[in-house]
Amino acid sequence: MNYGPEIEVAIARARADVSNLHAELVRYGLVIWTGGNISARVPGAELFVIKPSGVSYDELRPENMILCDLDGEVIADTPGCERSPSSDTAAHAYVYRNMPAVGGVVHTHSTYATAWAARGEAVPCVITAMADEFGGEIPVGPFAIIGDDSIGVGIVETLTGHRSRAVLMQNHGVFTIGKDAKDAVKAAVMTEDVARTVHISRQLGEPLPLPQSAIDSLFDRYQNVYGQAPKGAMK
Ligand SMILES: O=C(CO)[C@@H](O)[C@H](O)COP(=O)(O)O
Q: Which residues form a coiled coil (predicted)?
């Protein structure tokens, strides 16, 4: 299968990005063993790239990332296709089909955020870093069985119309979305950081709420002004 020069370049870039970004999950301590996964949409094509299932992070390379269509079917005769794709492939595919602005999806079982997910409790927006990145609470999605698109349905239902790039899937863990895979990885890193801080704050007493007007202005500044080339909120 040859998709033409532009799409082949985009596929190669997505393979490299997805492979390399898995190292960030390890670097930030968000995954254990072979848990977690990242995918990236291939811009300009109805395709995405995802990691193989249950393969050591040390073995992940661009050439063993798996190319799928937006139904989550592995594209035959492409590098890596001999392996089973991530258990969450159907969930990622459902997100790409139903959230056109999403260019990357990440899943982790990072400790503090997953502890909130196990309680089925949203992380309240009580620190400026949360207002910046999430624009409010990090919501909880439904419990959903692994393997089909149920998780994807829960992600889309929960995050559509929500500012948050992260959802805590009940009794499971974190799923994040982004404009691209790096953006979704950043949301996963920030999710764990704020889940930890708010948890520790609650050990000391009841965290003070942030006024909604402050949350709104912090979110707007961080998404649209902060840094060198802000890309804006997810639409
Ligand atoms: O929690 C799940 C699936 O949601 C896990 O089974 C792992 O987090 C990753 O599985 P693979 O991506 O390696 O299949």
A: none
